[in-house]
Structures are given as C-alpha cells and as structure tokens.
Amino acid sequence: MRSRRSSRDSRPSNNVEDGDDSDPPPLEEDADECSGRSPTLHGSLNPGDSSSRKGLPSSLLPSESKGWDVDTKAVDIPVPLPTKAAEEWTEKEKMEDTRRHRRSRPRSSWACSLATLVVALTSAFVLWTIMVSFRDRQCDAKGCRMSRMSPIYLKAKDFDTEHTRFASKYDLYLYREHGVDEDYPPRGVPVLFIPGNAGSYRQVRPIAAEAARQFKSMASKDEKLAKEGLRNLDFFTVDFNEDITAFHGQTLLDQAEYLNEAVAYILSLYHNSRKSTMDSDMPDPSSVIIFGHSMGGIVARTMLIMPNYQANSINTIITMSAPHARPPVSFDRQIVKTYDEINEYWRKSFSEKWMNWNPLWHVTLVSIAGGGLDNVVPSDYASISSLTPDTHGFTVFTSSIPDVWLGVDHLAILWCDQLMQVTAKAMLDIVDVRRAGQTKPRAERMRILKKWLLTGMEVGTEKMLPHKEPTTLLTLEDHSHTIISDGQRLILRQLGKTEKPRAYLMPIPPSHGTGNVKFSLMTDQRLDASRNSNIEVLFCSVFSLQAGQSATVFSMNMDLSGDSTGSTRLACRNAADDVIKLPASTKHSKHPFDLTQPFSYLEYNLEDIAEHQFVAVVDKASRKMPGWVIAEFVNSKESQLKSNINLAGLLMDGVHVTLPTERPIVTDINIPIIHSSLFAYKLTVEARQCRDEDVLFTPLVRQYLADPYESKFFVNVHEADINLHGTAPFIPPAMRPNARKGLSLQIWSDPTCRTPLEITVRMDFLGSLGRLVMRYRTVFAAFPLLIVALVLRKQFQVYDKYGRFISFAEGMDLFISQSLGYLLLSLSLLALSLSFSKHEQSHTVLSPLNERSLGNHEHRASSDSSVSMEFAKNDLLVGLQDPFFWFLAPLFALCSVGICVAMNYAAMIVIYMITAMYSICSRWGQLIGRDRARSAANPLSASSPRRRVLTTLTLLFFVATLIPYQFAYMVACIVQGASCVRALRYAREHVSFSHLTSYVGGYSSLCLVNITFLQGYGEKFSSSWDFYNYAHSILIIMLWILPINLPVLVVWHHNLAVHWLTPFSSHHNLLSIMPFILLVEMLTTGMMVPRMNNRVRHITSLLLLGLAAYSALYGVTYAYRLHHLVNILAAWFTGIHFSEIRPTLQGVVDIFTEDSGDEGAKKRHQ
Fold first, then answer.
1. Cβ distance 419 to 413 under 8 Å?
2. Is residue 1046 part of a domain?
3. Containing structural domain, residue 1075
4. Transport as a keyword (predicted)?
5. Are 578 and 602 in contact (CB under 8 A)?
C-alpha cells in the first residue's frame, strides 16, 4: 500500500555520485520563451518507443521496474546548438540560483569546512592532553601487599524460599578460615559482607581471614579480653551472582530486601548456639555489623529504609569505596530515585532535634575511600559529610590511616594487607558481646574507630590522658636528674649515655599568661606501655606519701633514686594511648609505606595537661644505642602560619614560605585558597646541609584537609605532587561545614639543623587537566547531545525554508560558523550567573525536575528545610559554585563538537562499508528476483506493511511483559541503521541530476523545450539525498541516547545469564519506546518528513532548543531524562509524518489482507 505524499517532499530518488546531495538549479518551464531564444531540433521521447531512447543511457530513462510513476506522454528533447541567446540564458539561470540561495555545485557528505576542521582538531588535542595528564601525571605510588587466606565457605542451605523469594537467585555463605576458625555453628559476632557492583562473595576472604588471625593472636596473649566481651567475628557473605547494581535501581532494592531477610536468619542462628557454650549468660545478638564494598555500601544504607527492615538490627556500617554522595552514573531513573530517598532519609533523621525522633541514633557509618588510584568510583563520592554529623560517622582516606599511608584502587581496597590489618583490629576493638547489639555504645564505637582509622591530629580529637588515673610512681634522686629550663628544648641524640635509666623533666608552664601553648615530642622510638620500650613519656605531679598510705595503689613503680635518702616522688600518667604514628623520614626513605619502624609523635594543648607539673621523658636504655628524642613547648602562633594569597597570585607565582633557622619541630601552613579537587600542585622543599652535626631526620610533610579526613605523607621530601579531594563537582555541601578551610601542610623538620627551609607550592597546570577525567567523565553523555540537537535544528531550519535537507556535516558547518560562538558565550554567562547567584543566596536553586524537593519543605522546620534544599545546590551545569570555573562549560561544549564530528564520520564509515557489501551481495543471482519485486513495491522497504505492523506489535507486547524497553530501543537503532544503508544505496545507484544535464547539455549553452521532464528528474534525484541525510541525522541522535540505555540492557542480559526466570520487574513503559518505534518504522518506508512552512515549524525549533538546554543544565545529574526528551522529539516527528497521511479503514484492512511474498508484490503493482 502506497502512502500519499508529494513527489518533492516524500519520495526518495537516487544519485550516482557518493555524497552528491545537491539540488538542481531552478529551471524555467516556459518552453516557448526558450525556443524563441535558440533554434532546436525536437524529437519525440516516449518510454515505449525504442527509437526515442537512442543516445540516452538507460539509467536516465524512467522505468516501472524502478518504482517510478511514468508519464507515457511524449517528451521533447532538445538538440543543443551553440548560440549566443543560449549562453545568455545560462548566465541568467546561474544568477537566479545565487539569489535563491541554491547550491551552485555538488557538496560531498564527507566534506567539512575549515572552521569545523580547526574545531575538531582543537577538541582532539584538548582531549588527548587531558588523557595523557590523567595517565602520566599526579599518579600516587602503589604499595599494597597481598593478604594471606585459606578459605572455607559453608552454604546456608536452610535459607530457602520459606525465608525469602530470592532464594533461587541469591545464596548465603558463612566464611571459615582453614586451620584458624572452623567452628560451626557460629558463636562469635555476626558480620555481613556485601559485595559491590558485579562483585563476588569470595571478596570477603582477606578481611575475614585477617580478623580470624587477629582474634586468635589477641585471645592467646590476654585471656582477660574474653571477660571484657571480645569474641571472634563470624563473616557471612552473599552470592549475588555478580549482579550489576550501579546501573539498575530495582536490583539494588531487591538486594536490600534479600539482605534484611538474611539478617533475620543470621540472628536466628545464635539463639541456640550460645546456650550450649560458656556464653549462655550472654544476651542473644540483636544486630549485625555490615561491611560493604562499593555499591554494597549503598545497599547497606538502603536496608534501613526497606519495609522488611528489623529495627536496630544494624548498628555499624563500614564501607569501602562506596559512592555515598551521588550515583556513579545517572542513566537509570530508579537508581537516582533510590539515592534521593536514601540520602533524604539519612539527612532528615540526623536533623531531628531530639534523640528519640532519630531512628538512626544508634547507627555509626564509616566510609573508607581509596583516593586517586581509584579509577572506578571517584573518591569524592565517598564523602558522607552531607549525610551524617561527625558524631555518627566520618569519611577517611586510606592514605590517612596509620600503618597504611598509601592510596589503593577500587579492588585492592579489599585485599590490601596493610589496610585489612588495621580494619580487622578496629572491628574487633568495638565488639562487646555483653550487650545485645554486640558492640560498644555508639560514642565509644566512634572513639575507637577514629583512634584506629584517623591520624590523631585532627581538630577535636579526644585525648585519653585527661581521662586516665595515675598508674606510675616515679621516684627520682634529688638534684641528680636533668631539669630542662623554661623555654628550652629537650634534645637527645643518643640513648643510654649513662648506661642506666634516666629521667628528663620539663616543667609545664602555667596556663595563664602564656598564650596558646602546646607540647610536642618526636622520636624514632616506640612509645608504648610495655617494659621493653626504650623511651617512656609520663605526665607527672608531685606525690606526697601520706602516713598509712601505700605505694601499691600504682600499677608501676619506677624508682630511679638509687640508694639516695633524699628523693622526689611523682605520680604519673603514661601518654602511650595518645601516641601518633608518623612514617619514618630518613635520608634513605622513599615512600611512607616502607617497611621501617615509624616515628612516634605526641602533641597536647596546654589545657589538656595543665593539671600536671612536669613532663618526664625517661630514657630506659641500659646501654648506648642509636636513637633520638626532641621535645618542646612552643607558642601556637609560632608554629601555625596562614597564607592569604589570592587565586591570581597562586596561579601566577604560587605560595612561598621560608621557615627560619629557629623554628619549632612542626610548622602548620594553611592555604585557604587551595580547596578544589580539580587543581593539582607541585610542592618543593629546599634545605641546606647542616653545618655542625648530622641531621636527625629529613623533612616530613603531611598534606591534609579538615573535611573529609584526607591526609598524605611525603617522606624525605624534596619535590612532591599535591592533589586533594576537597570541593568537588556535583557533591552536596556538608551538613556542618568545618571552620578550617582549604589545604594545610604540616611540616616536621629537624630544628637542630640551623638552616632555613624554603617551602614552595606552585600550580601544576598540565597535571590539573587529568583531574577532570574522573569528575566529568559522564559529561560526555550529555553535552554531545546539546551539540547534536543544535545541529539538527539547523538542518530543519534550512529544510523548512529552502526545501533541502542538508547533511549532518553541512549542518555542523553551519552551526560552527553561525552559532558556536553564541553557544560558548551563553554557557560562560550562564556558569557565571549561577555561581554568583549561589554565593548571594542563602539557599540553593532547586531542580524543577527533582521530585524529592517538591512539597517536602512546606511541613518541615526552617532549619531542616534549608538542609534539604542545600543538598541539590550543585546539580546544575558543571556542578560547581566557584566562578573561576566558568570556562569548563564552554570547554566541554567545544570538546563535544569534536566528538560529534568524529561520531558522524565514524557512523558514515560504517554505513558506507555496509552499503558496499550490501550492493555486492544484492548482485548475486539468487537474490535478483526478490530484489526486483521488492524494488517495485518500495525501494527502501525491507518487508511488507503487514509484516512490519505485526513485528511492531509483537515487539511492544514483549516490552510490556518480558523485556525492557531498552532492548526495543537497541532494535530500533539497528533498524534505523539498516534504513540508512538502504537509503544510501538507493541514492548512490541512480544517476544525479547534474549528470543528466551534463549529458543533455554538453555544450556551453543549453535550452530545454520540455523543462518539466528534467525538473521532475532533478527533484527525484535531490530528494533521495534529502531522505538519506534526514535518516542519518535521526540515527546520530539515537546513537547518542544508546549509551544511556545500554547499562539496563546489560543488567537484563545478566539476569538471563544466571538463569533468573522471574520477569524483569522494571522498564516496561510502552510510552518510553513507542514514538521511537513508530518513527523508525515510518522511515523504513522511505517517507521523507514533510516541510513545515507555517508557524508549526517553530515547535520543532523549540523542542530541539529545550533538549539542548536540558542537556547542558541537568544532563549530567539526570541523564536518564535525556531518553524521554528525545522520545518526545520522536513523537513530534512521527506526528509530522502522519500529518501528510489520511488513513482509511479500507487501507488498514488492506495491510492485513494483502498477499505476501514476491507474487503479492507483483499483484500490488500491476
């Protein structure tokens, strides 16, 4: 059945030249006027008369076999004669072409303007520079050691369909370490490991094995620990069949539902196991510890908002490289919605005024991030400062953790032996089976976790010394031990000089009138409470032994008085619990994670030790041995510096600080202007050689941020790369911002080396480019669609005005020459306006398409409302509030132009190659008969209308029931590509109008008697390329949406691969795919979109402008909506197509009653 359409607007034709999509010059139809200008000989051209075909190629003649409607009326063909009048007519014709803006010569689809070439090359150079910087510059050192493990997995076979509906898909296992912990049933503290995106249940091995060995070692050394509630950790792990949770929100919800049921089952295992053991008097466990990797951490937080969550069944969550702040990709609506619901629930809970109103009051959340080596999830996303206050959770980077001091990648964070040792110790330290929750109270858990996972130098770190009782009685001989004068520094270059223990006393200055004073001590020796340590630091007060009072009240009696009758007794507290470990920095040091004895460092503010009178540094070495100690009291103003340099000075000259010869042990330099995660820097430390004595240690530098807790150490430093995870794109602000802003550098230097120290921090511009990769890699799923929409708008503007649909390459040329400058300027102004408006307003601009921000603020307190509103403040454009980064939006747009140009040519190469192979295959003899019949019916259609309708209905039925609409979209892209191939073949295998005029008018003049005949040929030849260009442009915009749909398609395929027979429970909306299917099916018939000469054409322009604007503003944050916006555009194009067709009931009946096959095709066209 043929569609009603005009021959000019909707009927494709053919062209023999590759890429020749030119329109014919306008021809005069007044044959009499023409014949009056030049004498011609007329001949009768009749398709049925073979004599009239003489001299013309057969391909120029109309033929029914080619699907043309032929007028059998004789046509006059001129015999051109070179006359002056004909030459004048030709010149006039050329002038009319110019006035009508018609192309005067053919334009290849492969050609591009110089401006397009320059922009594409510039884009390629920028992208290449960014990737080289990301690969080669500002790279952290790797130093993880592999863990040891001997795994045994016990499957929970009783956890079947009676407990959960997912029993046939997921499995639960109990981990046991061979030779260390093989008991069953479990009697320890339950821990549930949750693997991440496409993760394996076997990834629990390193942490479970390390915890088992740590517990065995601790229990064998101290039997009292069992009485204090310490037990081993029973690690349960879940086999999710490597589910892909990062791309599919419904999978995330299914896992959370299953895990809540698994927690209930796990807790039930302990009801009987403890009654038959020594723990029969202990309460039954009521909660588990969650240990989640990557998206497993998000599943853990989701468990608390699920309907089947058992209250208080989770009180501790430790996550590794989990993207808490925002989803890694926003290609799925359900994943974005789930994130919004989770984060809103957590923020709202911790915003409650009263403890009883907070359902998460007992929960602690620790997020451990890998840092710059994690190339899967940006470590900025691991921040939980916008979700929880520091009383309930914190974010820490592995480079900050004592005895780890290195960055790790996304997978190594689960097997890095240094990290597993510290994490296992921290988890064992919070265990207390005497409580139903199996862990210590929340405040105590937070203190313990911070002690193990933080450096101990963070602002607000609680010191243990003031809370301890005196445990050591130090007895000294009068006038025999060194007392350091006020203001002097204690320096020991060697231990055991007197070959007997000796104490050095440093008087503590009074708390009033001394300003802000702090005490610092640094040594290369271990400072612990063991008797084997060579150095012991005590904070003492004079102790008078009263009559009848015994010295046995002290656990340790340290008598250094000898046989002297006169002695001084001091009641002392040991500072071992507050010791801070620092990586050793010597002239042989290379990395902070080297296998060397770390330095020990103590730091107290005066108010923490004001109740004491002396600091006693006891050298317990009984023989001479290498070792050094430096201790001092110093005013904080001398040790803390702040750089007030502005951004311009930082970019041009950097930061320069000179530390004088007389300086404290440690100097803290704060640079507030350095806070962005998009910048990288070079640190230089220059020091002269010591003049008199050997240096005790080489400069040690710690770079750190107050929020999140990120520290990096540089040992024996001369030059170092500085990069940080501070203010990052699209990351919501902190619930309680830290007062200390910007980057700080803490520098330990040897004060005995009396030479100045030069500190320089300069911008690393090339290294900064690589920082864009992880933060903005998803921007190229949105910004190219901005360019494609604007190019398509140019194509439709030309088509509606001049009747010619230009190629995508020519549309790109027009866009670059006419609109690119305005686009870059608009994006720059928009970025600046958004930045300044956010600085001026106390609240942020809400996303109009964000459901969670609508209607919630009306019934909340004003403080809670502001927290909720602030969460979305970085959703727009490039996700930053800093006006300095205004250039990022136009930079990404410029790079997107080059990407679109490359994508267009890549698509053309593929289409042309397939077309060439298709043309070769079509010449095979066994296909000739079928091809002729199909060409007679419709040269571009691959099947009959009935078959297409039935195929479409079948596809829609499966979308509504079994398959996601993303599968149908992929099919639509394939079909559209096939339509482009057939359209290109149809256009290339027929002669162009330029060849026809070249044959007929080979002389310098041409006068046509019957111009209507040639005009019809020209229109048909031109419209064939118009249709190909239109189909190609539709394919390009569909290809840019395809990556947004592929992740869900991968999840669906994975579900089929693991034999999960339950129907896919999401993405069955027919309206999300029907317009695409209808448009693609329309194009398979070869129907060209009609021209819109009225005001309706402005709707097309507005839709494309809206798509472009949304792609720029919200495309990164809500990328999944781009599919629906293009779907609306497809619906509009489909409506335009149907506006030219007036279907009748009889036509619909004919579709389902027509004959099929070659015979049916012949009958339809006889």
1. yes
2. yes
3. 959-999+1012-1148
4. yes
5. yes
